[in-house]
Amino acid sequence: xxxxxxxxxxxxxxxxxxxxxxxFRLCDRQGIDVIFDMPNAEPPVLRAEDLENRLALVPKNxxxxxxxxxxxxxxxxQLREAAALAKECQQVVGIKMYAGQSVGHLGITAExxxxxxxxxxxxxxxxGVLAVHCEKENMCxxxxxxxxxxxxxxxRPPEAEVLAIEDQIRFVRAxxxxxxxxxxxxxxxxxxxxxxxxxxxxxxxxxxxPHHLLWANTQMNNRDGLLYKVNPPLREMNDxxxxxxxxxxxxxxxxxxxxxxxxxxxxxxxxxxxxxxxxCLYGDLVDNVLPLWGLDKNMIKNVTCDNIKQIFKH
Length: 314
Known about the structure:
The chain is α/β, with parallel strands linked by helices. It has one domain: Alpha-Beta Barrel (TIM Barrel). The protein is 41% helix and 13% strand. It has an eight-stranded parallel β-sheet. The termini are close together.
């Protein structure tokens, strides 16, 4: 079995970008058996009613292959409902927090609101997964020039990711949060080192995408550079190489595609959307590239299945 624990299906008002049904057909071609969907859809998936509507969109033949996260807000009632659903509903694998604005409208940018998420979940006794998109909002800026696609990398600099991860670790400690903190799509060697340094103290995991493993930010200097605009952005080649080594050493827990399609028109023209359809990279990466990087069959099984099953109990 192979699991992709980070996919953006777009059903709803953005179904023209992607659908659950189409994602499964891509998965069939790439050797992926199960997906975990992200909640920043339109409308977002936050409560029981949203979950019911979301699950109704899953093709019956694929229902056993579909799981989803619920989003988070500073609303204590919403968090209480999400935590209960994560505990009671097999289709819900955890709660997602966007510690910074990305795609969608679930960004929680104020530190006091992020801290409230941890305090509330700790008070509820939540012991499941809290997956976090880590980019510190006040470290990012809007000086993106579409004529120079690589300028996006400077708009969301490395320190925005590292400082956001530091925030989450601090909130876990201060709140007594007993769940598992998952740092989504790490893109930096320094992020991995920070996460590794606290693994003996708190429950923390991290994942990496195919695009952050395969491509450096020089990819955005090409004529089609806007197609490679993602959040967090592509980094220096030294970071790519370090991420590959961390995957091999076990310091990165699994591969997650962060599959996030947009029409070409939305990539090359306003709004210059961030996201890449990375499921299409998965099969070749796992079957052909990872062995070249020195990962044996057991290592590959760990980062595509076993580590994920162990954390999410699915």
